Amino acid sequence: MTVEELVRAAAKGNTLAFEELVRLHEKKVYALALRMCGSSEDAADAAQEAFLSAWRGLPSFRGEAGFSTWLYRLTSNAAIDQLRRSRRQREEASLDAGDLPLDVPDGQPGPQEAAESTELQKAVADGLRQLSEDHRQILLMREYQELSYDEIAQALEVDLGTVKSRISRARRALRKILLERGNLSGYLPSKQTEKEGRS
């Protein structure tokens, strides 16, 4: 069955079809959630919530955007909600812990992952976590999920001009953060990226 056929079947309550949709998309959904949340535990919760929202929303899914695009929007929204919950929990914990950093996710990469990460990748990841939720969301959809401007516009239900301006502002904000940390030279968009940003 094609994805479209699976979507139609799942919308009618076919759980096997929905399980297949989950299997086909779970890695990308988790990857997006992990990029946004920074914690594997939070990402798993966000991914689960996204698929639950998809199951509940399939009967009213109109198909104007592709299923994966719609699912990425659900994932982004779930990740933002999870970040807010985690932030509240850390703030509450900080009342007792005193100096618990509020801007660093609870989960940290394992030793092997940390060793494999370059200094720039860490700087970019830290920079992303300091961006506003809207800026982080749209940069991740563009740079990491590699969605087109049109797909992002459909996923976020905004017009194309809004997508371009948000991406431009998000990139400037990230560059500013990296510049302040002395890492700007490592984050230079490709010529294609700059061309798209100007179009």
Describe this structure in words.
This protein has 199 residues and is mainly alpha-helical. The protein contains 10 helices and no strands. Residues 97-107, 112-116 and 185-199 have low confidence and may be disordered.
Radius of gyration (CA) equals 18 Å
Oligomer: single chain
Low-confidence stretches: 97-107, 112-116, 185-199
Average pLDDT works out at 76
Strand content: under 5%
The helix-and-strand class reads mainly alpha
Rounded to the nearest angstrom, the distance between the terminal CA atoms is 38 Å
Helix/strand order, N-terminal first? HHHHHHHHHH
Question: What is the number of helical segments per DSSP (H or I, 4+ residues)?
Answer: 10
Main beta sheet = none
Number of strands: 0
Coarse shape: globular
- Range of helix content: over 70%
Throw out a few tags for this protein.
10 helices, single chain, mainly alpha, 199 residues, disordered C terminus
